[in-house]
Predict the 3D structure of the following.
Amino acid sequence: MTTTPFQVDTGRLHVPVSDEDHVAGPDGAPVTLVEYGDYQCPYCGQAHPILVRLLEERPDTVRLVFRNFPLVEVHPHAEIAAEFAEAAAARGLFWPAHDWLFTHQDRLAPSDLEVAARDLDPSGGIAEELAAHDYMDRIRRDFIGGIRSGVNGTPTFYVNGLRHDGGYSLDELLRVVDAAAAS
């Protein structure tokens, strides 16, 4: 079957996990949990500590992949926050930036991110790359991959390539992960 850029598959992850993704957890984990998220989304903010805990409770079972899906119509700072994370990733600092963004959702304005960028990378490179929008292509690729996979809100999760339409409480995610690992 040939796919077009606008073909949607709402039940499956369209873009396989690759070396370009941001991954936490072991490469050989039996369960891959892909999150399409938005740094300004309050629901993603609520899910963040749950995902941290999930990785702590199933360290050999789960690898977490984060992909950008900024909903700019409702979250005006989501895109610049995603750019911040990608600029940090270029320096091997994706996960510290990712955690900072979710724990400081009330400080995502460009001026706040400039201060955070100087703290994370005193050389000033992140701030320059934010101003130049150097990572927009990457963010657009994530976003289009999400659309092609049927993402229509955040957070959206895929467990071993299949969309998880249930909740994201720790108990529910532990059940889903354990079931996926057993199959």
Notes: Residues 42 and 113 are 18 Å apart (CA to CA). The longest strand covers residues 31-37.
